[in-house]
Amino acid sequence: MFPKYNLAVTGWVWRSMRKLFLLLSLLLSHAAHLEGKKDNQFIWKPGPWGRCTGNCGPGGSQSRALWCFHSEGWTSHLSNCDEHNRPPKERSCFRVCDWQRDLFQWEVSDWHHCVLAPPALGPARPRAAACVTAQHGLQHRTVHCVQKLNRTMVVNEICEHFAPQPPTEQACLIPCPRDCVVSEFSPWSTCSNGCGKQLQHRTRSAIALPLYGGSQCPNLTESRACDAPISCPLGAEEYTFSLKVGPWSKCRLPHLKELNLSGRTVLDFSSESKELVTFRHHSYKAHHHSKSWDIEIGFQTRQVWCTRSDGRNAVLRYSWKTSEWKECQVSLLLEQQYLHWHETGPICGGGIQTREVYCAQSTPASTAQRAKEVSRPVAKTLCLGPAPSASQLCNIPCSTDCIMSSWSAWGLCVHENCRDPQGRKGFRMRQRHVLMEPTGPAGRCPHLVESVPCEDPVCYQWLTSEGICIPDHGKCGPGHRILKAVCQNEQGEDVSGSLCPASPPPEQMACEIPCRMDCVVSEWTEWSSCSQSCSNKNSDGKQTRSRTILALAGEGGKPCPPSQALQEYRSCNDHSCMQLYWETSPWGPCSEDTLVTALNATIGWNGEATCGVGIQTRRVFCVKSHVGQVMTKRCPESTRPETVRACLLPCKKDCLVTAFSEWTPCPRLCQPGNATIKQSRYRIIIQEAANGGQECPDTLFEERECEDVSLCSTYRWRPQKWSPCVLVPESVRQGLMGTSETCGKGVQIRAVSCISDNNQSAEMTECLKQMNSMPPLTQECTVPCRNDCTFTAWSKFTPCSANCETTRSRRRQLTGKSRKKEKCQDADLYPLVETEPCPCDVFTSHPYGNWSDCILPESRKEAHRGLRLQGDTKECGQGLRFRAVACSDKNGRPVDPVHCNSSGYIQEECVIPCPFDCKLSDWSSWGSCSSSCGIGVRIRSKWLKEKPYNGGRPCPKLDLKNQVHEAVPCYSECNQYSWVVEHWSPCKIHNELRSPRCGGGTQSRKIRCMNAADGEGGAVDNSLCSQDAIPPETQSCSLLCPNECVMSEWGHWSKCPQSCDPHTMQRRTRHLLRPSLSSRTCAEDSQVRPCLLNENCFQFQYNLTEWSTCQLSENATCGQGIRTRLLSCVRSDGKPVAMDECEQRNLEKPQRTNLHCLVECVVNCQLSGWTAWTECSQTCGLGGQRSRTRFILMPTQGEGRPCPTELTQHKTCPVTPCYSWVLSNWSACKLEGGDCGEGVQTRSLSCVVHNGSISPWTVRVDDALCREMPFQDSVLKQPCSVPCPGDCHLTEWSEWSTCELTCIDGRSFETLGRQSRSRTFIIQSFENQDSCPQQVLETRPCTGGKCYHYTWKASLWNNNERTVWCQRSDGINVTGGCSPQARPAAIRQCNPACRKPFSYCTQGGVCGCEKGYTEIMRSNGLLDYCMKVPGSDDKKADVKNLAGKNRPVNSKIHDIFKGWSLQPLDPDGRVKIWVYGVSGGGFLIMIFLVFTSYLVCKKPKPHQSTPPQQKPLTLAYDGDLDM
To answer: Tens of pLDDT along 381-426?
Structure first.
């Protein structure tokens, strides 16, 4: 128990501690409060605005509450929040009064579409898993408060005073997303035969579009490049072009300058007017100011451009157009292969078809189809690129008839119509079926059914089968057989017995079982086949059956029947051999018929080439074999072929021709004489008329005379008389004034006019056009002075003879007083006779250049039917080759080659060897058919006779024996030749003397080979029947004795299953005919054996051979044919059997036994004709060439003759002389008497003749041969200067620099480059350097420039120095061009600098030590200090440690701190372990301090009531579908 005072002390302590704790709490709270205020942890939070109070209208006011909140969510005193950011507590408002209720209302829109609600917080669920039947959505609408009067919007608070705001969203349900559904892809489109990169595509269609956020539709089209694209020749890419137009602009008036009175138009509103839409679209724009009928015409514009199918814009241009292909002509190929071929009958197979190719302006495809227009042809030179092919290979299908099976056996005599039997007349029929369908338009099948009339026809008959003989009493003797009768129709089907006309046969018939001593006879054999298929006058058909004696009779027994009773005969096929059948004519053309007009109007038929349904008819007539046509009632009506069938009408095709081309232009210039000039135009047939369409016009070419063609007038110069000689005063010449001279040299002038041939004056330009030059208007003249000699004018030169060594002369005479003057008599000073050598016409020719190609003479034969084949023009044989001639006169000057040779060529004969084609022998005769039954193969061959050479047609692929083979199918009737056997003869006993005559023996029969097609059944040679299936003619037999047991013949073996299971047994039985007299048991009456494959059980399957070679018609040499393969039925042991064996077992039969094939046509290379020779590549001189080309119209196909390699021929042009003006060098600067300064220098211009290249030894000729002088006087004269001594002057121009392009990264972005040259100045005296001119720079554009790049180059280091320069990529060292920032250093320095004592910068760029010191290196490879090597004063230190491997030998201070200095890193640079420990401890101390401060300073959160906050409006969906 505690003492009482202890309790008192304890309570006092507790009270004191509580006060202290409260004080501490207040201090901490205040500190926290101050700290929170300091850190802006208090924010203002306003409450909602209250109701608007005060006067009605905008004069009201409303207030709200404000709280100061700490960032942790508790409220505080308002003083803790910043007063500067305090929100307003009151504001003015629009107070709504009740009487304003009718002025405002809520206006709501319709609900928008239901959209998916945004996903709630958290990971989005997969769509497929979230949605089963529907998904949540939201619908929104807009809500506004509006005034009723003008529907203007106001604040929503006004309407909220009267009624709460309608909701703006509501929940809704959206069905689950439904993805897009598309169909399957269609097959890939076919690739065309054109060149270039082509695409093929396939498409699919959208079946159901996506809904409710389902996946979008995938691409509905796919494209891929066609395999193995054929690259197009340059310019032959296949594009389509379309004219694309932009939208019309707004209608606007033209500019004021373009307005005129004619632009105003008055419209007549009484008539219908239509606007014309053109490139510049006119539009009518009414002015509101003007009258209603006053309308001004404005204009609209739009952009028009041509787009290409690859998306690029293309300009309107000309392109090649073609007509439709003409009919296929096989004869073109046959004539090519066989020179002496002539048409003897219908031909088919491969051929060539042609079309017209012309040039026309390109039009967009859409416009051309809509307008149904054909562009008019233009000159072919306007179309670029190679023209389309004008010919191609084609095929005329060959016709082959059906291959038929053999006839079936004749049927029973039946009524023509078993459903309605009438009369006693019927028909027996036999049938055959088509083994191979006909091909081609003319292929036909013969009739399939033959019939013969007969009497007493029946449609139904009883068929009986016999049972075994049952004795009436005992085991032998008389008995009866049970008969089973079935009624069958003519097809062998079981029907009701009520249909058979007669009563059924008796149910049993009498028979006899032999007793022990009776004779035993076998059962009757089956009736043999009929001996004849029909009956004639000489013989009838017969059938036989027989039975044989099996055992002889004993004593008292019933004897054997006579031999006559062992055979029976009956007639068969007693009908006439004259069969009846229906024959049909070919189907007529498809024509319209009124019966199907309504059908055409209601049914849309597919196919572009058909225009509705028509009918075809044919004639049907009854034919009797070997007689001809008979009355139709004799043939059965049930088998009559149809005479009318529906057909697709071919569309009428109207003839399409181009518009006429433009008229060929008439000459604009005048024409000489009275020649008639004509102009022409033409048009081309694009599509021939067909199927009754509009025929083509007769006129395809028109011609007319040119109108207003002016005849050329001849113009000539009419010079006037020369004026008197006018002297030039000497004073004028010297620039001095003085008296005029009375003699000397002067000038006289004259007028020159132009006149026409009728002496009418004309413009001077007319004469200049014809004459090219004008007579001189001035000439020098001389006014003789008083002491001068005067002469008459020179006479004409005397004529020259033909000799080149002769001369010619002319004379003059003295006149007046000069004849008496002595000085005028001096012939040396004043000659009266001039002599010169005659012009010599002796010219020398020498060949120039190489010989041309061998050129054949032009053939005048025109292209055959619009197509030029290689055989049409002469391609080999004798021709000519040419060599140009250079001609010169006796002085060696080049002259026109006409002086040496009229053609300018020398020529000689040459030979182009003719090609020889491969020659094969004719086809051998066809071999026998490989199969004697069904479809087989026949083979024929040809062999090589002569190999090709000189580019002849190559041989086909030959085998090792140089042979080529051809295989065609053949067919042999399987039962055409068959073995026919007679009945076995009676058994002949070997021992004839034995009594009774019984025991073993032999029996024989006759066999023969019969032709089933022979109606009379005549025998043929046995070799025609199969020797493998020849039946035996003899066999062993036995005749049983009276006391022996007699058994019947063995029955047929039971059938084995198709699987030939060896566990399954096969059984056959026989029965006892007569028991034995002794007690011996008879032989067995049943036998069994297992079903063994290929022994007694066989399986069957269809067998297909390989495809045969491509079979052509006999009339075709190439083109489309048929390949066949053989279908047969083969037993499992490999033996072929009848097709029935496979058909009865319902085996799967291969579908295709033939397919179309193509035998490549042998097409020789087809070439165009040679073009005209081009103009000479040079107008004169040496080196000119002319050429001509030809083009390959169709390359070689198959084994055709290959194209020649020479498609271009060249020949050298004749060497014509070239006349050129040549400038001489500039003369020295003429200073007109001065020594230096400004002067003039000149150069002369002369005409020279040369052979295309001006050389120093060119010969000067008369200036008139060089046409007009091309240079002005400024080119012949220029100012110059000669520097005076001491002057500063410019140098001559430097050479032009090489052409350089401006490039970026080695690629130029300009086509023209630049080259420069310069002139600099030379200082001759420093005193005059201030007067030096500026240096001159020139730049000019150039072509053929290159891109250059500039790089820095540097020499090797030498004492830390080297030479650095800039070099251009062509090896030229330059200044400038290289980047200054990339310039390498020319002086090498160590970094950091070598500041250690006794250190210097080495060649390697690192600090080293001088001689006598060794390097002490740091761990980072830098020099620490240099240490003196002991004894280095006298000799070199031979050890230098530059690697820093040894630890440095430090000073004493270093040794003192070596043991305790803090080193955080190891020598290898890694952080030491104690560093990690110190860091971790420091981090823990920091965490402890932070946590302690938080516990001390944390203030407990007070429990204060917070102002009520408005609960946000949430819309919950409870799953009720009514929402």
So the answer is: 888 888 888 888 888 887 778 878 778 878 888 888 777 777 778 8
CA 982, CA 496: separation in Å to the nearest integer? Answer: 38
DSSP state of 196: B
Q: How far apart are CA 1011 and CA 473, in angstroms?
A: 51
Q: Name residue 1187's beta-bridge partners.
A: 1210
Which residue in this structure is represented by tokens 């062509």?
1370
Strand partners, 568: 545
Question: Helices (H), strands (E): how many in the chain?
Answer: 12, 98
Q: Per DSSP, what are the bridge partners of residue 1010?
A: 978, 1019
231 vs 223: which has the higher pLDDT:
223
Residues 6+ apart with CB under 8 A from 1365: 1352, 1353, 1354, 1373
With tokens 């000439």, the residue in question is: 779
Q: DSSP E strands: which ranges in 176-287?
A: 181-182, 199-203, 206-208, 221-225, 241-245, 264-266, 281-286
Each residue of 742-771: pLDDT tens digit? 777 788 889 999 988 788 888 888 887 777
pTM: 0.46
* Spatial distance between the Cα atoms of 358 and 867, rounded to a whole number of angstroms: 15
Task: Give the separation between CA 322 and CA 331, rounded to whole angstroms.
Answer: 23
Strand partners, 846: 886
Q: Which two tokens stand for residue 833?
A: 């006779």
Say if residues 36 and 75 touch (Cβ distance below 8 Å). no
**Do the Cβ atoms of 581 and 449 come closer than 8 Å?**
yes
In which region does residue 1102 sit, left (phi positive, over 0), alpha (psi from -120 to 50) or beta (all else)?
beta
Top-ranked range on mean pLDDT: pick from 16-25, 147-156, 268-277, 854-863: 147-156
Rg (CA), the chain: 63
Report the C-alpha gap between 201 and 186 in whole angstroms: 9
* Phi, psi values for residue 375, rounded to 5°: -65, 145
User: What are residue 648's DSSP bridge partners?
Assistant: 613
User: With left for phi above 0 and alpha for psi between -120 and 50, is residue 832 left, alpha or beta?
Assistant: alpha
Query: Quick check: 1082 and 1040 in contact, CB under 8 A?
Result: no
User: Are 847 and 883 spatial neighbours (Cβ–Cβ below 8 Å)?
Assistant: yes
pLDDT at residue 1507 greater than cutoff 50: no
Residue 1274 parent element (H or E)? helix 1273-1276
Return the structure tokens found at 183. Answer: 């169909």
Q: Give the integer Cα–Cα distance in Å for 406 and 1014.
A: 12
- Two tokens, residue 403: 């291959």
d(CA 1227, CA 1234): 16
- Per the CB < 8 A criterion, the answer to whether 895 and 843 are in contact is yes
Q: What is the pLDDT of residue 273?
A: 33
Cis? peptide before 969, omega within 30° of 0? no
Q: Which two tokens stand for residue 1185?
A: 């060439």
Task: State the DSSP H helix or E strand holding residue 155, giving kind and residue range, or none if neither.
Answer: none
Cα 1401-1406-1412 angle, rounded to 5 deg: 60
Three-class HEC string of 543-591: EEEECCEEECCCCCCCCCCCHHHHEEEEEECCCECCCEEEEECCCCCCE
Q: Which two tokens stand for residue 281?
A: 């679209």
pLDDT reported for residue 1162: 80
Q: Which two tokens stand for residue 429?
A: 């029929």
Q: What's the pLDDT tens digit per position in 342-361?
A: 666 677 888 888 888 999 88
Query: CB-based contacts of 863: which residues, under 8 Å, 6+ apart?
Result: 872, 1169
Asked whether residue 479 carries a pLDDT value surpassing 80, the answer given is: yes
Q: What is the mean pLDDT of the chain?
A: 76
Sign of CA dihedral 1384, 1388, 1389, 1390: positive
840: tokens are 């010599």
1372 confidence band (pLDDT: 50, 70, 90): confident
